[in-house]
Specification:
With 509 residues, the chain is of the alpha/beta class. The chain has 2 domains: 295 residues, Rossmann fold; 100 residues, ANL, C-terminal domain (GMP Synthetase, Chain A, domain 3, 2-Layer Sandwich), CATH 3.30.300. The termini are far apart. The mean pLDDT is 93.
């Protein structure tokens, strides 16, 4: 029998019904209350014609209802499509069109965006979670009138229950699809390799639950432990909650840890119950991790390397390995993940040589939505998946990242693909051509930097160009800096030579 995501939700609900499961500010839900509310929300959705396999978009920031809504979708057999609230209206519209979503669930604080999307897509139905301002019904209010019984929906292990967008190597939208079985595999992956959850544990979530942070909810749910949710990252509130809620584990990106280091209370708070500081999503600057370990203790720090396509941990760097040159390593392969290093033809490279990481694991996605050519390119014979990351094993079996086959920029834990920003910039009437690169930055790890050549008769300052981009894409994608130049270097075949630009401007970063 193959275990499904739904199986694990139902098991966890029955183990510790009266214990506190979810905490958000001064409000909380027990396991029983979370289970019951998610059943009622599932019935509310089904009553509105939503059927097993339908794709439903979620426009929700972190809240008390994040987990019940996710669980409701799984129980109704729905394929949920989370939308990052930080993205622009145009980006949201494209995602809805790409996935064919005809129903959107929105939070009360995002009702204005829901209204804008409804205007842009007249066939889109919208229902609120605690609001009707964006159109449709308030499903929270309706849930009180629904049955508390488990929905009678038969699911299969290969049912797609999550379609999560991540940009492509050219900035083209792509969405990784996870199934009932693969998401259960993600939960097992976390428990096997990263967190040995105990009943009295609590994990603090400040990052968006639609990304890596949300992966930890189910492992804690299964052990009767608490999930403590913040609406967003605030260093002062974050440190206060570590003490107040007796937090045992946190997950963060390097930028968050760097912001904490600058807080006057970082070295003062009681972290005696905090066992794990888990970090990933982008490379950790060495000075940041060294200072953090010196203050809170090396034994607390765990690094993971993973991808949306194969969450959460492909490799793990354990606390005892946080030393010397290994601080720059990805770690050792996870117990339940197979790793090969291959060349462009998919052949294994010689031992000790760098190659593209290819993976095979129960937590791997089923494929990209509506992208047969991309799936053909990324999947290899035998069920292996290319990652587009170049790495090398050392003599002790540690994986060291060398390069990316794409020009992706990782800034503050978010992926930015140059072409997406370049396409916006080149639409500006003053811009002749441009290239977008990532340059090292002490706060963001990499800063999005635009190198721009203006048309002969044009003159414009840096800030108007930044504002022009910010009006069309998510704020984290806008350039932090614009460098003006006479011409953009090209390769021998006429392509933008971003590597040459990175090399040229690295010393100025």
């Amino acid at each position: 029998m193959t275990t499904t995501y739904l199986d694990l939700i139902n098991r966890g609900a029955g183990y510790y019904p009266e214990r506190t499961a979810i905490v958000f500010g001064d409000r909380s839900l027990t396991f029983s209350e979370t289970h019951t509310l998610s059943n009622q929300l599932a019935h509310s959705l089904m009553q509105r014609g939503v059927k097993r396999g339908d794709r439903v978009a979620l426009l929700l920031n972190n809240s008390l209802y994040s987990v019940p809504v996710d669980f409701a979708c799984v129980k109704a057999g729905i394929n949920r499509v989370p939308l990052n609230a930080r993205l622009s209206l145009n980006e949201h519209r494209k995602m809805l069109e790409e996935t064919g979503c005809e129903l959107l669930l929105y939070g009360a604080d995002l009702s204005e965006r829901a209204s804008e999307l409804r205007d842009a897509l007249p066939t889109l139905q919208c229902h609120g979670i605690g609001s009707t301002d964006g159109g449709g019904d308030d499903l929270l209010a309706d849930a009180a009138n629904q049955s508390t019984a488990n929905p009678d929906v038969a699911v299969e292990p290969d049912d797609v229950i999550l379609t999560l967008f991540t940009s492509g190597t050219t900035g083209t939208l792509k969405a990784a699809q996870h199934t009932q079985a693969s998401y259960a595999g993600v939960c097992k992956n976390v428990l096997l390799n990263l967190v040995a959850v105990e009943q009295d544990d609590a994990m603090l979530h400040a990052a968006s639950l639609i990304h890596a942070s949300g992966v930890f909810v189910l492992p804690f749910w299964l052990r009767g432990a608490r999930t403590v949710i913040m609406p967003g990252f605030d260093p002062d509130a974050f440190l206060e909650l570590i003490e107040k809620e007796r937090i045992t584990a946190v997950n963060m990106v390097p930028t968050m840890l760097q912001m904490l280091l600058g807080h006057p209370r970082f070295a003062e708070i009681d972290v005696s119950r905090l066992r794990q500081v888990i970090y990933g999503a982008s490379p950790m600057p060495r000075p940041v991790i060294e200072k953090a370990m010196a203050t809170w203790g090396r034994e607390k720090f765990w690094q993971y390397y993973g991808q949306t396509e194969c969450p959460l941990t492909i490799a793990v760097l354990r606390p005892e390995d946080h030393e010397e040159e290994l601080l720059g390593a990805c770690g050792k392969p996870s117990i339940d993940v197979e790793i090969r290093l291959v060349d462009e033809q998919g052949n294994d490279v010689p031992l000790g040589e760098p190659g593209e990481i290819a993976v095979r694991a129960p937590s791997m996605m089923a494929g990209y939505h509506n992208a047969p050519e991309l799936n053909k390119e990324m999947f290899m014979d035998g069920g292996w998946l290319r990652t587009r990351d170049i790495a090398q094993f050392d003599e002790r079996g540690f994986l060291h990242m060398k390069d990316r086959t794409s020009d992706m920029i990782i800034t503050g834990g978010y992926n930015v693909y140059p072409k997406e920003v370049e396409d916006v910039l080149t639409a500006h009437p003053a811009v002749a051509e441009c290239a977008v690169i990532g340059l090292k930055d002490p706060q963001w790890v990499e800063a999005v930097t635009a190198v721009v050549a203006l048309k002969p008769d044009q003159n414009i300052d840096e800030q108007p160009l930044i504002d022009f981009v910010a009006g069309q894409v998510a704020s984290y994608k806008k350039p932090r800096k614009v460098i003006f130049t006479d011409a953009i270097p090209k390769t021998a075949v006429g392509k933008i030579n971003r590597k040459a630009l990175r090399d040229q401007y690295a010393k100025t970063a």
